[in-house]
Design brief:
Number of strands of chain B: 11
Largest sheet of chain B: 7 strands, mixed
Structural class of chain A: mainly beta
Structural class of chain B: mainly beta
Largest sheet of chain A: 6 strands, mixed
Radius of gyration of chain A: 14 Å
Oligomer: heterodimer
Largest interface: A-B, 24 and 25 residues
Order of helices and strands of chain B: EEEEEEEEEEE
Radius of gyration of chain B: 13 Å
């Protein structure tokens, strides 16, 4: 079964607010995590990644936080814009059986209200 | 520009028919993957291939078949044995065992049974 999940299936925010999307993972051996953005009818696009030797990584308007103690990952989007409306999901490098593959969560649908 | 191309964007299948979804990449990636995405669900792995002429079953391989005769191409055939094929299909590629930046995804094929 999947080892990556999300706390909330939907999130609605006002334009200009900050958004926080959460993800829980169960494989403590995972050492690499990625956040993807998927717009309607399109393929997922890489947003930001983080390795397990880091707690925080920042990109342009996005920050990923990793808490290995509770196996929790979050994506923070600053000053959310209408173009940020999409499904966001996390992925972990599930290195089981020596075969590195990504395992994806179910996703959170972010809606940005004008 | 390097990328991964899926075709067609929309595909309709009659009951009992086999259909083939195309996936081509010019990124010189070793590994290619096929995922199925259903509404409200995450990505489920159908098949993956690490190298030409070799491929492995994923979590939901039943009713699907693949081939990897060229590094650039990884077509997926949805056979009549797949009883519920209506879904959004995503192809991805990566450098095998080197998951920096994760997977590159195509734009998807939406398959509908009519």
């Amino acid at each position: 079964g999947e080892s990556v999940g999300l706390h909330l299936p939907t999130l609605s925010v006002q334009e200009g607010d900050n958004s926080i999307i959460n993800c829980a993972y169960s494989n403590s051996a995972s050492d690499y995590f990625i956040w993807y953005k998927q717009e309607s009818g399109k393929g997922p696009q890489f947003i930001i990644d983080i390795r397990s030797n880091m707690d925080k990584r920042q990109g342009q308007r996005v920050t990923v936080l990793l808490n290995k103690t509770v196996k929790h990952l979050s994506l923070q989007i600053a000053a959310t814009q209408p173009g940020d409306s999409a499904v966001y999901f996390c992925a972990e490098n599930n290195n089981q059986g020596g075969s590195e593959k990504l395992v994806f969560g179910k996703g959170t649908k972010l809606t940005v209200n004008p | 520009d390097g990328g991964i191309t899926q075709s067609p964007k929309y595909l309709f299948r009659k009951e009992g028919q086999n259909v083939t979804l195309s996936c081509e990449q010019n990124l010189n990636h070793d590994a290619m993957y096929w995922y199925r995405q259903d509404p409200g669900q995450g990505l489920r792995l159908i098949y993956y291939s690490q190298i030409v002429n070799d491929f492995q079953k994923g979590d939901i391989a039943e009713g699907y078949s693949v081939s990897r005769e060229k590094k650039e191409s990884f077509p997926l055939t949805v056979t009549s044995a797949q009883k519920n094929p209506t879904a959004f299909y995503l192809c991805a590629s990566s450098i095998w065992q080197e998951l920096n930046y994760g997977y590159t995804f195509g734009s998807g094929t939406r398959l509908t049974v009519v």
